Structures are given as C-alpha cells and as structure tokens.
Amino acid sequence: MSVAFYETGPALAQYLVLHYGPPGWQLPSEAFQVLADFPVRCVREGFRWEELPPDPHALELGCSVGRSCFELSRRCRRVVGLDRSEAFIQAARLLQTDGFLRSAVPLEGDRTEEWLFSRPPGVRPERIAFEVGDALSAPCGDPVDLLLAANLLDRVPDPAALLRRCSSLVRPGGQFLLTSPFTWLPEYTPRPHWLLPGSERVAALLEPYFTLLRRWDLPLVLREHPRKFQWCLPEATLWRKKA
Ligand SMILES: C[S@@+](CC[C@H](N)C(=O)[O-])C[C@H]1O[C@@H](n2cnc3c(N)ncnc32)[C@H](O)[C@@H]1O
C-alpha cells in the first residue's frame, strides 16, 4: 500500500463504511458494537468540550471522507477538513452538498454491491470547508481551538514535522487530539523518520508546546469485505496548548 491507496475504490468503500455505515455494516456481530463509529467517538469523547470557548473553530488533518468534520460542525462555528485524497474529499463534498452518496462496496472476489451512504442528521454542513491538501504544507489559516489528527501520523513522510506543524496550528489553550496505531511502513514514511517507540517519541516532541490531558485506547474496525475486518487499537492522546 502507498499514498495512492487512498484514491482507490476499495479504500473509499472502507472509509465510507467506517464513517457513515450503520453499525451493522461496520461490524457483523452485535458483540462488537462498542467498536463502531470511530470518527464520532473521536469528537464526542476525545475533547474536553466544557473547557473550550463557545463557538470554537476546528481543523481536522487527514479527515478522509469527513465524518468527524460533520460531528464537529454540531458544536463548532467553523470546521476545515483537509485530506490529500481527492477521491475522499470529493465524497465528503457530495455528502455535504447532496446529503447522500452511492458507492460500491466489496462483497467477494470482484463482486461488489452499491450501498447508499447518508449525511448524519442534525449536523451543520454550511459550517464546513473540505479541502484537498498536504497536512505538512497546505495553508491552514489562523490557529484553531480544536485540532484533530486521527491515524494520519504514520501515513506521512515526516511525522516529526507533522507534530511541529500541529503545534503551530493550535491557539494557546486550544486542544489537540492525536490518535495513531503507529503502523510504521516504508511505503509511507522512510525508515529514518519512524518515531520509535511511537508513544514516547510523540510525547517528547509535543511536550515543549502542549500539556498532556489524557492518554487512552480508541479502537476501530475497518471492513475489507463481509468476512474480513481489520481491528486497530490506536493510542489517543489529548493535549492542551501552552500559553
Ligand atoms: C489511515 S487514514 C485515516 C482517516 C481518518 N482520519 C480516520 O481515522 O478514519 C489516513 C488519511 O490520511 C490522509 N493522508 C495521508 N497523507 C496525507 C497528507 N500528507 N496530508 C493530508 N492527508 C493525508 C489519507 O488520504 C487518509 O484519508
């Protein structure tokens, strides 16, 4: 796999199901339903909302097909979602403008089925801007109150540079939620840039700029086809930007 993977049909299907699939599509068994709706859990459980100013501004780097941005729009006046994949941002924009999207999801072999994905009710699409761009370099405007980077760190060529960039994108007192399974792969990140061990190196790189508020596990399941699911256990850390 490489960055090009995120432009493919199978990747689009995996992330549409993860972000917008009803729990029964995301996971075959009721026993696993606590693992459903990862992008929703990031937003609902990931931030200390009571400590934020009213009408905060939010930025998500690596937003994929955009579910967390829709969830952020319930409570934020302005949300920017940035992703390098044109296919993902095109899907997010269709959900934003039309409210639904049909896409093929894998069944078995080359068999697929068209499923309908819908924008969740009660969100504020007019507050969101979805942009195609590189999280390491794209212009991101003024520092924000909330920054989310879910499972992006081990997909960029220079993760330390991404963390330095994140520190500049949050205003003092603002919150930064980082999640990562630390799946270091040379296809995405040259070996000398791997942060090993991830948990310790991330903390060392963020501590000059942020105070750690919380560290926990935020699991998710990616559906590849009806009989194959990837269970991931990203580490989540919530940080507050120092004054
Ligand atoms: C593992 S997926 C995670 C997606 C989403 N945050 C989630 O947790 O469901 C990584 C995402 O990062 C995006 N991505 C990879 N490199 C990027 C970069 N340099 N800048 C912005 N997005 C990038 C991919 O297109 C993909 O959407």
Q: Could you list the spans in which at least 5 consecutive residues all have pLDDT below 50?
A: none
CATH architecture: 3-Layer(aba) Sandwich
Q: What is the straight-line distance between the termini? A: 40 Å
Rg on CA atoms, Å: 17 Å
What's the tally of helices?
7
Biggest sheet descriptor? 7 strands, mixed
Element order: H for helix, E for strand: HHHEHEHEEEEHEHEEEE
Query: Roughly what fraction of the amino acids lie in strands?
Result: 25-35%
Mean pLDDT, as a whole number?
96
CATH class: Alpha Beta
User: In the CATH scheme, what's the topology name?
Assistant: Rossmann fold
Bound molecules: S-adenosylmethionine
Counting helices, strands and paired strands, the structural category is alpha/beta
Strands in their spatial order, largest beta sheet: 5-2-1-6-7-11-8
Q: What is the share of helical residues?
A: 25-40%
Quick one: how many beta strands? 11
Number of domains: 1
CATH superfamily: Vaccinia Virus protein VP39
Tell me, what's the shape? globular
Describe this structure in words.
This protein has a seven-stranded mixed sheet with strand order 5-2-1-6-7-11-8, with helices on both faces. A two-stranded antiparallel sheet has the order 3-4. Strands 9-10 form a two-stranded antiparallel ribbon. 26% of the residues lie in helices and 32% in strands. It starts with 8 loop residues before the first helix and ends with a strand. The chain has one domain: 3-Layer(aba) Sandwich (Rossmann fold), CATH 3.40.50.150. The chain is α/β, with parallel strands linked by helices and 243 residues long. Bound molecules: S-adenosylmethionine (SAM). S-adenosylmethionine binds next to helix 1 and strand 2.
